[in-house]
Amino acid sequence: MSINDESRNKMVSYLEKFGYIKSEHVKEAFLKVDRSNFIPGNLKEEAYRDTPLSIGSGQTISAPSMIALMLEVSELKFGLKILEIGTGSGYNAALIAEICGDQNIVTIERIPEVYQFGRENLKKAGYNVKVVLGDGTKGYLEDAPYDRIIVTAAAPQVPQSWKDQLKEDGMIIAPVGMERYYQELLVVKKKNDTTFDIKKHGGCVFVPLVGEDGWKE
Ligand code: SAM
After folding, report:
1. How close is the Cα of 58 to the center of ligand 1, in Å?
2. Spatial CB neighbours of 20, under 8 Å, sequence gap ≥ 6
3. How far is Cα of residue 139 from the mean position of the Cα atoms in its chain?
4. 152 ligand 1 Cβ < 6 A
5. CATH 3.40.50.150 is the classification of domain 3-204
6. Which residues are catalytic?
7. Model confidence over 169-187: pLDDT tens digits?
8. What is the pLDDT of residues 75-107, one digit of tens each?
């Protein structure tokens, strides 16, 4: 077993012990995907610390505990159709691909350099995930409707396009709030075109979702 594998096993034990990982499929995904493949060279040694890390252009790969929490509340299973907004490093997309299948996820990123970085990382790690360059505040109509829209940047509110691009019983999982350094993790479940159930899953801090229906640059 390599030092990397050992560190990954330790991180997964920690995430389980503190209740971030609850289900077998999320655990399996975390054991399988090597986070160091999604981190720039100078920070690779930090890969298995439970902390966000810089990926350039002022953006971050989220902390493993935050990702685990979001994946658990997303109630994922193989075959669900997923839109991830905020590709970043591609790590979360790889975890989702492990659970739902790489043909079932599309991920969108707005910064060209970050888009290249995430796309390359996913490709090198062997994931055939569709990565799109664009403004995710509009969702991504081409592959809609989705079972889940998983947002990894902080939205001031939930845009109507996300609600419209969701299937019935589908869920939006997103950090939402009007403050720069505090959001609430929301799960918004679509009952029908006009009725949505909203559940709050605690405070969090994400980089801003910038775009037409998000924060302005
Ligand atoms: N999921 C990522 C990972 O696994 O590394 C972490 C994402 S990082 C916390 C948030 C990302 O959202 C950044 O790369 C940022 O450029 C991107 N972003 C911000 N606004 C966006 C938008 N309107 N559409 C798409 N991506 C956006």
Report:
1. 10
2. 64, 65, 68, 69, 72
3. 14
4. yes
5. yes
6. 62
7. 999 999 999 998 899 999 9
8. 999 999 999 999 999 999 999 999 999 999 999
